[in-house]
Design a protein that fits this description.
This protein folds into two domains: about 100 residues, 2-Layer Sandwich (Phosphorylase Kinase, domain 1); about 240 residues, Transferase(Phosphotransferase), domain 1. The chain is built from 13 helices and eleven strands. Strands 1-2-3-4-6-5 form a six-stranded antiparallel sheet, covered by helices on one side. α3 packs antiparallel against α5. The chain is globular and about 60 Å long.
């Protein structure tokens, strides 16, 4: 076996010098990992599904050819491991080691992609399921905020299901994560469809960029399509203005990169009203609560955008607005999905009939 020593932060250097293939063996301090298949590849390197020698366990091993990025991700993951990854819906790291000057980070294996499971089905997702997903990812953002870390790349592809049976999701890929006190104004981050307006306009940046991106994720799940099908920042800003209206004067005054082609045509309410009619099975107050939360997450002014702690106390998450006998049956079904009470058979059938088969 080709030997690798336990991870030393000073020894993550070098470019990828070994051609990996199915069957290659990587030796870490906690075991030998055998490459079974490659799950993805990019500028960072490769992600391989690996089995652990002498066990039935499988892992996702991220193998990077660029040392600085590899060490940066490892240092971020060390901060995250001080939290409870399961409780806070963050991917779990098991170890990091070097193999012939390649940095290998061993993660838990999550094989069910959020985008493929939800967006490719072309069916509406009930609000009770959107609520579960929102609550879990808001917990993730709250945990990251508590340690001063911003993910900076939240998108559909970076959310994975741990367990489809109870809609358990986790936030993955911290390769672009950064400590918030190190983010410089003008830093380019996030893919275009999920890029926060302050990134485009050149405003000061902090972890609120993640709240915007999560709002865009929930909007995608709700609508079944991307709100901004744009490939350039110019198109994205115009789409933002078309949906949310012109940014406040204070925001534009502080922006380093101003766009000269703003027009006010606020049709966000009209767009959501259209979808409300498609969600006939939902309680109208529940729909209004969700849209209110979504608006607060997609507040163009980052200083007024809702925080993770505030969002977790919002009525849509706590379901306070569903109190009362007239809403008891609907609320019971929602609580069942949230895991607060066992759902009744009839309500399970009601929700299941409108939800795609996962």
């Amino acid at each position: 076996l080709a030997r690798a020593r336990a991870h030393n932060p000073r020894d993550c250097g070098g470019s990828m010098t070994v051609e990996l293939r199915v069957g290659s063996e990587l030796v870490g301090s906690k075991g030998v990992y055998i490459v079974k298949e490659f799950l993805g590849e990019g500028g960072f390197g490769k992600v391989a599904k690996c089995s652990k020698l002498w066990s039935l366990e499988y892992y996702a091993v991220k193998i990077m050819k660029i040392s600085r990025e590899g060490q940066k991700e490892f240092e971020t993951m060390k901060l995250i491991q001080d939290l409870d990854p399961d409780e806070n819906h963050l991917i779990k790291m098991y170890e990091c080691f070097t193999y012939r000057k390649m940095t290998c980070i061993v993660y838990e294996l999550l094989e069910v992609n959020f985008h493929d499971s939800l967006m490719n089905e072309q069916q509406l997702v009930p609000l009770c399921y959107i609520r579960v997903i929102a609550q879990q990812l808001l917990k993730a953002l709250k945990a990251l905020k508590s340690i001063g870390v911003a993910h900076c790349d939240i998108k559909l592809d970076n959310i994975m299901f741990k367990d489809l049976d109870d809609m358990n999701v986790k936030l993955i890929d911290f390769g672009l994560a950064v400590e918030t006190n190190e983010i410089l104004t003008g830093t380019k981050m996030q893919v275009t469809q999920f890029r926060a307006p302050e990134v485009i306009l050149g405003l000061p940046l902090d972890e609120s960029v993640d709240m915007w991106a999560l709002g865009m994720v929930l909007a995608c799940v709700y609508c079944g399509y991307y709100l901004f099908l744009s490939s350039t920042e110019y198109e994205t800003i115009r789409a933002m203005v078309h949906i949310f209206g012109l940014p406040e004067a204070d925001v534009l005054h502080r922006a380093n990169y101003k766009d000269a082609f703003f027009t006010r045509d606020n049709d966000f309410d009209a767009m959501t009203d259209k979808h409300r009619n498609m969600y006939e099975m939902h309680d109208d107050d529940d729909h209004k609560a969700f849209i209110d939360l979504l608006k607060r997450m997609l507040e163009v002014n980052p200083q007024r955008r809702i925080t993770p702690s505030q969002a977790l106390e919002h009525d849509f998450i706590t379901m306070k607005h569903l109190a009362g006998k007239s809403k008891a049956a609907y609320a019971a079904g929602c609580e069942g999905v949230m895991g607060k009470t066992p759902p009744s058979d009839n309500l399970c059938k009601t929700f299941s009939s409108s939800f795609f088969s996962l």
